[in-house]
Amino acid sequence: MEELLNILSELHPDVDFTCQEGLVDDAILDSMDIVSLIAAIKDVYDVSITARDIVPEHFNSAAALYRLIQRLADED
């Protein structure tokens, strides 16, 4: 989770990602941020986020995104 928080902090250093629950819904993350996130997650966690996984509920919080990463890693 620490690596994910570092990735998110690089995108928006002013946001406390440990408690934010509406990253997409509140427009903190935009589509370009999500593209950057997906690439960084691939590099760090070696998991591929597919189009079917790119839904707001997976990107609204760091915890939700980490659960997605764990699920994808378990599927490999």
Helix content: 55-70%
Mean pLDDT: 96
Total of DSSP H or I helical runs spanning 4+ residues: 4
Give the class from helix and strand content and strand pairing: mainly alpha
CATH topology: Non-ribosomal Peptide Synthetase Peptidyl Carrier Protein, Chain A
Give the total of beta strands.
0
Cα-to-Cα separation, first versus last residue:
19 Å
Q: What is the rounded Rg?
A: 11 Å
The outline comes out as globular
Give the topology string: H per helix, E per strand.
Answer: HHHH
Low-confidence stretches: none
Strand share of the residues?
under 5%
**How many distinct domains?**
1
CATH class: Mainly Alpha
Major sheet: size, sense and barrel closure? none
- Report the CATH architecture: Orthogonal Bundle
Determine the CATH superfamily. ACP-like
Description:
The chain is globular, with a radius of gyration of 11 Å. The protein has helices spanning 2-11, 31-45, 56-59, 62-75. It has one domain (21-75): Orthogonal Bundle (Non-ribosomal Peptide Synthetase Peptidyl Carrier Protein, Chain A). The protein has 76 residues and is an all-alpha fold. Helix 1 packs antiparallel against helix 2 (31-45).
What is the fold's blueprint, element by element?
Layout (H helix, E strand, L loop, with lengths): L1 H10 L19 H15 L10 H4 L2 H14 L1
Helix pairs in contact: 1-2
Q: What are its keywords?
A:
mainly alpha; 76 residues; single chain; Non-ribosomal Peptide Synthetase Peptidyl Carrier Protein, Chain A
